[in-house]
Amino acid sequence: MLPQTSATPFSPDDSATPAQPPHPSRRDWLAWAGAATLAPLLPACGGTGNPGPTLAATMAWGRSEIRQAMQRGEARAASVALLQGDRLVWQEAFGVLDDTTRALATPDTRFNVGSVSKVVAALAVMVLVDRQLVQLDAPVVRYLPQFTMLSPGYRDITVRHLLSHASGLPGTHTHNLFATAPLPGYAAELEEALADAHLKHAPGALAVYCNDGFTLIERIVLAVTGQTYPAFVQSALLNPLGMARSGYTLLPLPEGSFAHGYIRKQRQGQEFVMGHATGGLCTTPGDMMKLATMLLQGGEYDGRRVVSKAGVLEMGRSQNPGLRADLTPDWQWGLGWDSAQQQGLSAAGVLAWQKSGGTMFYSSDFYVLPQAGLALLITGSASAFKPGPVAEGILLRALQETGQLAALPPKVSTAAPSLATSSASAVDAVLGIYGRSAKPLKATSPDSQQIDLWVWSAEARSWTMLSAGLRLRSDGWWWSDAQPRTQYRWEQADGRRYLLSREPATAGHYWVTMPMAQQMPRAAAPLPAQWVARLDSHWLLANEAPESIPLAFGVPAATLRELPDLPGYLFWDDSQFLLPLSPDRAGMTVQVPLNDGRDLVELVVEARDQQEWLHAAGWSYRRQA
Questions:
Q1: For the chain, which terminal residue's Cβ has fewer other Cβ atoms within 10 angstroms, N or C?
Q2: Distance between CA atoms of residues 517 and 520, nearest Å
Q3: Residue 155 belongs to a domain
């Protein structure tokens, strides 16, 4: 049980307008961590206290869902904690730490919670705002006068932009981000690398999930406090909250205190995440409920003010107003939060702040319901573990069991509505190639009435069918009779045409709409001779440390091509389209909001030892002979 207090969960209704996405991945290699066949579930252990009659049914449902996920091989170990008011009503661990010792996971087992760390980063900034050391809408260069980029607009990036994914920074600096040993200097290296990079969009124009922005928070904290980011968070947040089992992976943890990751059935050492602010927190669900208690109490914990109520409210305020390309208004960004109005709970009429997080070896989901007085963290020891739908289901049932929700919300109807008419010219206008951060798409039509969607296959080196026979329906979406679960729509924003998708969430009671890709215009000129000479080349990753986890997974050689469907563009790593900026530099070309425009790269060629090298988002590649 957490410290007793007379405070009640505060309501942000009178002073905040609520602000959401799921966590995303760095192309295929971030997802490879979940590819191994995992061990079967062992019995749960370590539950705390007598849960009493109030959430017994909720807990039973949650236990069953977690066990089923583990039986499907999604994780070896998992852990959950549920907060009601200021009481920790459920804390339980499942499974084993590894296949060798078969030691049972306990509530004290530590997990890397990945991007859930961004909530802590935003809180750290709010503490600095309270101390009048930082202003949210001040430019980053006020605190980092040495910070620079090739695009002049970098001077317009504010601290708020960093915390709300609206900075325009490329996405994720990949060099030595995940390793099995601490590799210091990541944040300083990112800042240095950005000096030789362009923005992908103007600051504040759109919000695209961006790890780099949170990594720059580390540099700001160091500049204004003189403390490293982990040291500041420890003194300003973790110590006051009594989060004794939380911190950053600066040194190895004792064996038996954390759940191991696996690569192809081989147990790996401890996972170190070098991007501390963006994804480096190592913690337990129980510890995170102490942080959640502070948030529910408007910034106070155990009678002590940790952060201002105004700071907590600002984190939960929608950051969408002012965006030029806001294609999904039901998806609201917070500061640090993926969602300041999570859609699944919102569909039930409940305000929820939500943040998901994933690393190479772990997956987590964190919720705080500021009006309902509930909070939850679920985490598991594999990136294939999907805690989001389970967390959502637990909270909906807890609301129902505590009398705050009359019934679970009904499922959305997936019955296709009646056909509508569309002109041939309207169909023809949306045909063509669509770019994003991975696997571009192509829209074709056999008759200028229906549309077929294709996705690029690196293995086949050709297009494969994604959805055939899409027809416009009366609801404005294009449905396929053969694949009715996912619908598509085209919209224009900020002078660009976007392809959007819609499908029912796993829980089934609301739709999830996502901008998928941006229509690519014809290139203004053919590729220059220098780039033509590099076409159909293969590039080997050459600068990762021996302890690198992506290297252990086996990063394949990257390719540089030109697709016949889209002449004049470079096609990098079977994923991204770039345009030459000079004989030795190629720039980013898409601006897709939310998730599918994240983690873009700028290619820079360097001659070294009579050989060409290529640099992309922190990774350096040597040309394969």
A1: C
A2: 9
A3: no
Pick from 1, 86, 2: nearest CA to 51:
1
Length of the chain: 625
**Residue 510 sits in which domain range?**
424-519
Total domains in the fold of the chain: 3
Q: Please give the pLDDT value at position 315.
A: 98
Confidence of residue 443 (pLDDT cuts 50, 70, 90): very high
CATH number for the domain harbouring residue 323: 3.40.710.10
441 shares a domain with 308: no
379 token code pair: 């985490």
pLDDT tens digits, 96-118? 999 999 999 999 999 999 999 99
pLDDT at 541: 97
If asked whether residues 323 and 240 sit together in one domain, one would say yes
pLDDT at position 530 is 97
- Tell me what the mean pLDDT of segment 4-18 comes to: 31
Q: 392 with 401: CB under 8 angstroms?
A: no
Q: Is the pLDDT of residue 5 over 50?
A: no
Amino acid at 591: Q
Give the bridge partners for 380, in sequence order.
78, 363
**CA 366/CA 346 separation, integer angstroms:** 16
Bridge partner list, 88: 83
Single-letter residue type at 407: A
pLDDT of residue 24: 31
Sequence-separated (6 or more) residues with CB below 8 Å from residue 413: none
Whether this model's pTM surpasses 0.85: yes
Structure tokens at 518: 């941006």
* CA-based nearest residue to 467, from 491, 447, 437, 487: 487
Q: Quick one: 346 exposed, middle or buried, by C-beta within 10 A (0-12, 13-18, 19+)? A: middle
Q: Which of 497, 519, 541 is the last residue of a domain?
A: 519
| C-beta neighbour count of 99 within 10 angstroms | 14
When the pLDDT of each residue in the chain is averaged and rounded to a whole number, the result is 91
Give the H/E segment covering residue 465: strand 462-472
